[in-house]
Amino acid sequence: MGKTHIAQALGHLAVRQGAHVRFAKTSRILAELAGGHADRTWEKRIRELVRPDVLILDDFAMRQLSAAHADDLYELVSERQGRSLIITSNRAPSDWYPLFPNPVVAESLLDRLINTSHQVIMNGPSYRPNKRPKNPTEKPAKPSVK
């Protein structure tokens, strides 16, 4: 099972227990908040992200963040303090720091995330190669005889 699958399963369990859950790729959340800066609906958008009992941010820390994205993440995590947040990432938390342009924002945000969290480290091969469609022209391997 993959990180996203497990995060979604936890979200599903929370929904079954009556919680309001929102799942999104972190990049989509950041784009949504950036749009709020552009059309002056940022406050409304951040309230919508703070509201759910559980917020799941998938694929966190995939790439370098702009200063505005880092600030938006800081605000989101700060506003959600004490509420459930599930984050999936392909990077170890120690590798997140260089992705933030401002070390003060990075330290404050990541301190909130890392020091108040339960971390589940999943090591192992990707499941995706097993899900790859088979090539219809590929001949089945012949059994070896010894």
* Average residue pLDDT: 89
Helical fraction: 40-55%
Order of helices and strands: HEHHEHEHH
Please report which band the strand proportion falls in: under 5%, 5-15%, 15-25%, 25-35%, 35-45% or over 45%. Answer: 5-15%
Number of helices: 6
Which descriptor suits the 3D outline? globular
Unreliable spans are none
Give the helix/strand class.
mainly alpha
Distance between the ends: 35 Å
Evaluate the radius of gyration. Answer: 19 Å
Number of strands: 3
**Neighbour order of strands in the largest sheet:** 1-2-3
Summarize the biggest pleated sheet: 3 strands, parallel
Question: How does this model look, in words?
Answer:
The chain has helices at residues 3-16, 26-39, 42-50, 67-79, 103-114, 128-131; strands spanning 21-25, 54-58, 84-87. A 3-stranded parallel beta sheet has the order 1-2-3. It is globular. The chain starts with a helix and ends in a 15-residue tail after the last helix. Helices cover 45% and strands 10% of the residues. It has 146 residues and is mainly alpha-helical. Helix 2 packs antiparallel against helix 3 and helix 4 (67-79) packs parallel to helix 5 (103-114).
